[in-house]
Amino acid sequence: MEKDTQQRNHEAVSLVPFPLDILFLRRDVIKNWNLTATDLKMPYWRIYRPYNSCGFIHYNDQVINLKAGSVYLIAPNTPFVSRTRGGLLEKIYAHFTMGGPYADCMDFIQELPDCPPLLDMLEQMSESLLERRHDDRLILLTTAAINLAVSLLPPEHLERHRNIEFQLLSVYHLIKKNPAQNYSNKKLASIAHMSLCTFIKKFYNSFGVTPQHFLLEQKVDMAALLLLQSDETISDIAESCGFCNRYYFTRIFTKYRGISPAAFRKAYHL
Fold first, then answer.
1. Residues sharing a CB contact under 8 Å with residue 68, sequence separation 6 or more, in sequence order
2. Across-strand partners of 93?
3. What are phi and psi for residue 53, nearest 5 degrees?
4. Percentage above 90 pLDDT, the chain
5. SS3 203
6. What is the pTM of this model?
């Protein structure tokens, strides 16, 4: 009996953490919260923890009332409109990007189950912000809170590509990893070891868009993050994202986002 217990106590596994980039963290008191993001889908996650029940979100013909003390995760590229119904909305929130299986999540809003450790970490983060203690401890707390929050997501949000062929998933992740490369359909088909016609048909059936449409979406997402996070010129961003010039970039960005790069940066720069 003692031998069996020792064996069980020596089980181990090597773990590789998912990449996490915290873009923005803030505690706010907002009189009029009026964020219209229907045409401005952001390529990053949001985590919200409201302190009162003054706010609500319109999403997919639903009204989601933000409840005091609850925690909400909004996936990347989720179109929604948010409002206040009177009073001051008080909340702590963060924007972040995440790799691993969470890199493929998109278009959902999830109220998380009650989790006292998560609420405790968010409260400590809030206190640090109020006291202007922007130190390493705040980074550790925010990282821990985000990791715990995404671990509470229902499994169905992580199973989007379960039945897709490995070769197509390899191409999908190759594009997401480096969208600035101007991959031709012929090149992508050769990477997938498929004929050109078969590759385009299977890619569309698997992901709902053509390979080139998907590539442009990823370029636009990459550019949106740079517009939000960096002070690079729009011309430099266009070049680093694989667009031939600023004018073509502006046309494509405006087509996909419904707003020009300059207006997007002015309105939403972090």
1. 50, 51, 52, 53
2. 26, 48
3. -115, 35
4. 59
5. helix
6. 0.84
Contacts of 74 (CB under 8 A, 6+ apart): 45, 46, 47, 48, 80, 108, 109
Q: Determine the number of helices (DSSP H) and then strands (DSSP E) in the chain.
A: 10, 9
Classify residue 43 by its DSSP letter: S
* Pairing state between β 35-36 and 109-111: unpaired
Q: How far apart are CA 90 and CA 105, in angstroms?
A: 27
Do 158 and 106 contact (CB within 8 A), yes or no? Answer: no
Nearest residue to 253 via CA among 224, 228, 231, 215: 224
Maximum distance among all Cα pairs of the chain, rounded to whole angstroms: 73
51 close to 71: Cβ distance less than 8 angstroms: no
Q: Do residues 168 and 147 touch, judged by C-beta distance below 8 A?
A: no
Which of 33-42, 184-193, 260-269 is modeled with the greatest confidence?
Answer: 184-193
CB 217 within 8 A of CB 256: yes
Residue 57 CB burial class (10 angstroms; 0-12, 13-18, ≥19): buried
Q: Is the pLDDT assigned to residue 16 strictly greater than 60?
A: yes
| Residues in CB range of 168: below 8 A, 6 or more apart | 192, 202, 203, 206, 207
Beta-carbon contacts of residue 188 (< 8 Å; ≥ 6 apart): 171, 174, 175, 199, 203, 211
**Smallest Cα–Cα separation from 185: which of 221, 206, 207, 214?**
214
- Cβ-in-10-Å burial (0-12, 13-18, 19+) of 159 comes to exposed
Structure tokens, 12: 């181990």
Asked if pLDDT for residue 266 goes beyond 60, the answer is: yes
* Residue recorded with tokens 């020596």: 10
